[in-house]
């Protein structure tokens, strides 16, 4: 039995779907059983669980051999994930696959990367076999820009001419399934990226081609970007973390392309051109 957390999210949901398609017995830990009811299947059972309620986590872990760990960023470093991996050890979990982030480190400038760095460090110390996946910016994050593209034909970010190799969440899930079911991944950390590193202006060109309309990228100052994020209801610490990420990326801090997806899955990363064709439906 594999316990999948974050099962209603982008990556966790795709991992659950792929594992189930392979006939693996899965348990999806969710906060709201009613909302997650459509996930239930012949080899997928649902269990209510919340990282802030350890008794529910311990119940979810009971009888499982592996754990796919997705967490929600918090302002407090290393919490509440440390109790979860401690409970996993106590429950006899044999392998934990954790979703971290590209560039995660305890000394990172971005709070989000620093937070992931603390959790990665805790996982390495806990004494349970582990694999850490460190994906770059999700291609699916471009869906956040749909309203602006529809209304103004543009999307905005403080990225200047910085390049990033955005990755499709389905490739992240492919890698997760490979490391959960395969061998030789214990103690490994993999940087996961797409197959090409592009500026936001270049991403805009590809979206324009796929959507059949001009879509522009507009560069804005970091302070303006943070103001917009706060206006969307984003917590201050999270907005600060994202702005710090963008600042790092805008100066070439994460433009390298990794070959980990192909090595782990034996297929090339999905292209942004292919993603853009899917994205076009949302814009139209």
Layout of helices and strands:
Layout: E1 2-4, H1 10-21, E2 26-30, E3 44-48, H2 54-61, E4 66-69, H3 81-90, E5 95-99, H4 111-126, E6 130-135, H5 146-152, E7 154-157, E8 163-164, H6 169-181, E9 188-192, E10 198-199, H7 200-211, E11 216-219, H8 222-231, H9 236-250, H10 260-265, H11 272-283
Parallel strand pairs: 1-2, 1-4, 2-3, 4-5, 5-6, 6-9, 7-11
Antiparallel strand pairs: 8-10
Helix pairs in contact: 1-6, 2-3, 3-4, 7-11, 8-9
Overview of the structural elements:
The protein has helices at residues 10-21, 54-61, 81-90, 111-126, 146-152, 169-181, 200-211, 222-231, 236-250, 260-265, 272-283, and strands at residues 2-4, 26-30, 44-48, 66-69, 95-99, 130-135, 154-157, 163-164, 188-192, 198-199, 216-219. The strands form three sheets. The chain has a seven-stranded parallel β-sheet with strand order 3-2-1-4-5-6-9, sandwiched between helices. A two-stranded parallel sheet has the order 7-11. It has a domain at 2-136 and 168-194 and 256-266: NAD(P)-binding Rossmann-like Domain (Rossmann fold, 3-Layer(aba) Sandwich), CATH 3.40.50.720. The protein is of the alpha/beta class and 284 residues long. It is globular, with a radius of gyration of 19 Å. Helix 1 (10-21) links the parallel strand 1 and strand 2 (26-30). The termini are far apart. It contains eleven helices and eleven strands.
């Amino acid at each position: 039995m594999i316990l999948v957390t974050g099962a209603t999210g982008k990556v966790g949901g795709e991992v659950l779907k792929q594992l189930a398609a392979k006939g693996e017995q899965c348990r999806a830990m969710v906060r709201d059983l009613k909302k997650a009811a459509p996930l239930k299947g012949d080899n997928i059972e649902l269990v209510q669980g919340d990282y802030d309620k350890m008794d529910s986590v311990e119940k979810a872990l009971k009888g499982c051999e592996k754990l796919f760990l997705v967490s929600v960023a918090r302002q407090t470093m290393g919490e509440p994930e440390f109790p979860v991996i401690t409970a996993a050890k106590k429950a006899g979990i044999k392998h934990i696959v954790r979703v971290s982030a590209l560039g995660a480190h305890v000394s990172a400038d971005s709070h989000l990367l620093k937070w992931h760095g603390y959790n990665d460090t805790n996982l390495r110390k806990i004494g349970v076999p582990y694999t850490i996946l460190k994906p770059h910016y999700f291609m699916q994050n471009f869906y956040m820009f749909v309203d602006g593209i529809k209304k103004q034909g543009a999307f905005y970010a403080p990225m200047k001419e910085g390049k990033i190799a955005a990755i499709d969440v389905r490739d992240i899930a492919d890698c997760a399934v490979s490391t959960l079911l395969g061998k030789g991944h214990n103690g490994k950390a993999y940087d996961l990226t797409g197959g090409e590193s592009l500026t936001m202006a270049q991403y805009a060109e590809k979206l324009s081609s796929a959507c059949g309309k001009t879509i522009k990228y507009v560069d804005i100052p970091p302070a303006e970007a943070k103001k917009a994020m706060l206006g969307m209801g984003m917590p201050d610490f999270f907005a600060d973390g994202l702005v710090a990420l963008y600042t790092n990326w805008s100066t070439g801090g994460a433009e390298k392309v990794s070959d980990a997806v192909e090595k782990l899955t034996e297929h090339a990363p999905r292209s942004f051109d292919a993603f853009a064709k899917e994205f076009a439906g949302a814009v139209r």
